Input
Amino acid sequence: MATTRILEGLGRLYVFMLLAFLYLPIIIMALMSFNASPFYQLPFEWTVDWYQSLWQNGQLISATWNSLEIAVITTIISVVLGTAASLALYRYEFRGKKLLQALLFPPIAIPWLITGTAMLIFFFGVGIGRGLFAILLGHVALALPYVIVVVSARLQTFAPELEEAARSLGANQWQVTARVTLPWIMPGVIAGGLFAFAVSFDQFVVSYFLSTPGQTTLPVEIYAAIRKGFTPEINAVSTIIIVVSMALMLLTARFFKFGGEK
Amino acid sequence: MAAHGAVAARGGLRKALPLLAPAYLWLTVAIFLPLSAMVFFSFMTDLPLTGKPWAFTLGNYAAFFSQSLYLTLLLASLRLGLEVTLWCIVIGYPAAYVLAKVLKGRSREAIFLLVILPFWSNGLVRIFSWAMVLREGGILDTALNAVLPFKINIDLMYSYPAVIIGLVHSYVPYMVLTCYLTLQAIDDSLIEAGRSLGASRLQVLKRVIIPLSMPGLVAGAALIFVPVVGSFMEPRILGGRTGTFYGTVIEDQFVAVFNWPLGAALSFILLAVVLVILAVASPVLRRAT
Output
């Protein structure tokens, strides 16, 4: 089947072209952060000046700390609340369960522009206002459905007989959860946590509407900088973000199969 | 199992509630109440908080229907969503097919991971990286002029195509992911059976592969279309002055013009349009699960 082989070869070539399309701009953007010219002029001259000047940029540094803090707190809260909710949805049957599960999808499916502006209006209306606390409230709400979906998927592979066996051997509910169920679903919990961290750390739209000049996150700060004009400093900080996010994704992939392998 | 379920059903909610309540309370405070508040505010003349007098009004919705600008922009955004979705299908579907049916084993796993890896990395940064490539005297310009014997000036930055390129780059991994999942589930023997019964490759594609992978296509299209219609950051950065869309107008109401009630009404109209589109797509989606 010569035709088949040719077609398969073309297919492989095509996938590599797609990968080039996906990665080239990111690689070029990253390379430019090591280029000496402030106007992105070629020829390329190696420098790490832009990374050094990042350290002098107090605004960016404090926005970075805010982003990290919010992402860590979001991860902890959404993993704890999300795992608890997943366990309840897995263990118990009750009326309205389907509805509760369906309610997880609006936060994922509704464009962040709508969610973000709605949060702005509501938080302003009830006196929470804008700022880091409002951003945290929003991020946890965005991350929770992802955690519940991921942990629930892992729970699907859990045999309820294991819990019953532990119970019949005299373990109480807390011991069953801590010693039997949690260890089994741990990969799902870790994957959910990494998802939550990524949702929060990369979140721009919702943070944008909820931030104030002093209380802002890194993506919002980058957006403001881009609109003022491009400088290689933005490339440097973008490169750091992309490396961190991709490393997180690779970690997530280790704990959670995306491919739905049979 | 059925008996076990029946026992659990009695008092199930009472036991489940302490575990469920924190998560769903949080979602209520940060998602569901805000969405309700947005609908409420969209019928007001002014925000009650500013101390100014306010009243209920339909004026914000009347503004949408009386000024053709908003409708034009909504249509432009829907068109943008449609174009980006179509490009994502054209580019993503063949790649998903190759991943699912041609590549095998470790190379498939590795390439699949590489395709979906960027899609959780910061969207803003990816758009910025296109600004690097497309701007005048940027990388694409320099590279083409280095290769070609004549001087050309492709000034794509701040144009409609730039917005399309940036958005397709951001969203094509979704399409690859959803199509891959359904394509992978198609039994190879179905394809072989079609071929051995004398169908050409094209006929197998049209009659077997595409119909069976339709749920993945629709899911991918919904996942792409909805956020693209509401996009505002991508058109702002890559579109410049040509990048005025429905999303950027909503953004303006909240961060520049400070007409929140109008912004709320515009947001709610967008939400309604999005829900209608999802409702139309959902029967096909349900068949997938």
